[in-house]
Amino acid sequence: MPLAFDPSRRPRTLAAAALRRFVTEEDAQDLIEYAFLAAFIATAGYVALNGIVPAIGSTYTSWIDPNSGAPSLWQPADPWTTAGS
């Protein structure tokens, strides 16, 4: 029957003890998984927004262009000179 505390297996430094505990314990595994998921979603959002911004800018630029955009398609009515005549 092994002893609960074996001095020969005791880590020599505090860092080694922390590393051993980090590798063997599974208490906060779900928190780490959620952190990785949040980092992935944030990275995907950043990449998507960097791709969308130039597309939106070029679309608005084409709409505002007076030669080919919406202003060239709209002809305002002539103003009224006098009411009722």
Could you explain the architecture of this structure?
- The chain has about 80 residues and is mainly alpha-helical.
- The protein has a domain at about 30-65.
- It contains 3 helices and no strands.
- It has helices at about 15-25, 30-65, 70-75.
- The longest helix is centred in the middle third of the chain and has 36 residues, at about 30-65.
- The relative contact order is 0.04.
- The model has no long low-confidence stretch (mean pLDDT about 80).
Distance between the termini: 113 Å
Would you tell me the overall average pLDDT?
78
Helix content range: 55-70%
Structural category is: mainly alpha
Q: Given the C-alpha coordinates, what overall shape results?
A: rod-shaped
Distinctive features:
single chain, 85 residues, mainly alpha, 3 helices, rod-shaped
Itemize the secondary structure elements and their pairings.
Elements: H1 14-24, H2 29-64, H3 70-73
Task: Briefly say what this structure is.
The chain is mainly alpha-helical and 85 residues long. The protein contains three helices and no strands.
